[in-house]
Amino acid sequence: MFLHDAVIIGGGPAGLTAGIYLCRAGFDAVLVDRSPVLGGQMNLTEKIENYPGYLSISGPELAKKMEVQAKKLGLKIVTAEVTKVKLTQRNEKVIETNMGEVKGLTVIVASGSEPKKLGVKGEKEFLGRGVSYCATCDGPFFKNKEVAVVGGGDAAVTEALFLTKIAKKVLLIHRRNELKAQKVLREKALQNKKIQFIWNTAVKEIIGNGEVRGIVVKNLKNNVEKIIGVDALFIYIGRVPNTGFIDVKKDEKGFILTDKYLRTSEPGIFAAGDCRSASAGQISSAVGDGALAAFSVQSCLEGIDKEMPYVSCKAMADCFL
Predict the structure, then answer these.
(1) What is the average per-residue pLDDT within 200-216?
(2) Domains: count for the chain
């Protein structure tokens, strides 16, 4: 089986950027993604207006530009779902997929994460048409509109505060009677006159006609349901990392732990983008991760004896000194 210099798992902005940098540096890199349409979460965003260099660009268009650039530079693409990453006694990495095995000296895990879904009627149908998981990305499209945020943690409260700078009114819907967010965020939100809190309440359905026009909510104490008119619903009930296929150190939520050079607990395995603990969750930050991971892989590979490519990159901890 052919042994690649680097195997990149995930075809979002982090993975594509890593591929671009590695191929430009002359390394043999292959990217594995379960979808034939590369770009990850970018493909779910109708308009992107916070990516440097573009006043406005559609998510699919930006994704395609990255893919075309990576392929022109020689990045190999394999469409398959990764099921497991194994380390051999020769310290090679074997990536098992539903289409066979791919082998590499190093691995960059850039498999991303997915927002937790409410699982209610209308959520899928109105995605990109009022349903969003990113206020920073989509909030500006609802200037002077009434919007709702679901959740009570740091992310939900932070994004609700962000939306008050744009929307006319922000409803913050939470299943409990108090916020879980850190104290400083709670205090800011409770003092913000643009935020209206709806406690002990769950969203049961999202309704509209082509675009979101309202939500059906249920009070969890008295079971009373009602319809609330809103123009958008931002969902922040957590994220789920796509990291179940690899055994490295992770945080309590399953996100991969890395050092400042994006090295994981296993030599020769790196992580970049939204699958990584402490990721900013933005396209630009994922691109930065991808570039740094590529540099780290390059430093690792250049420390390997070319006559014995299976030798452990034992100097990983020192290769940046």
Answers:
(1) 97
(2) 2
Whether residues 108 and 123 fall in one domain: no
Q: Domain range holding 103?
A: 3-114+239-302
Which of 235, 259, 287 is a domain's end point? 235
Q: Which of 23, 137, 275, 300 is catalytic?
A: 137
Rounded to two decimals, the pTM is 0.76
Does 23 participate in catalysis according to the annotation? no
Nearest to 171 by CA among 214, 207, 204, 140: 214
Average pLDDT over residues 131-143: 91
Longest CA–CA span in the chain (Å) reads 72
Q: Are residues 22 and 100 in the same domain?
A: yes
Cα separation of 37 and 60, whole Å?
Answer: 9
The pLDDT tens digits for 12-30 are: 999 999 999 999 999 999 9
Q: Is 134 a catalytic residue?
A: yes
One domain, residues 133 and 106: no
34 plus 181 within the same structural domain = no
- Cα dihedral across residues 159, 165, 168, 169: positive or negative: positive
pLDDT of residue 314: 41
**Confidence tier at 238 by pLDDT (50, 70, 90):** confident
Q: Catalytic residue at 137?
A: yes
pLDDT of residue 115: 87
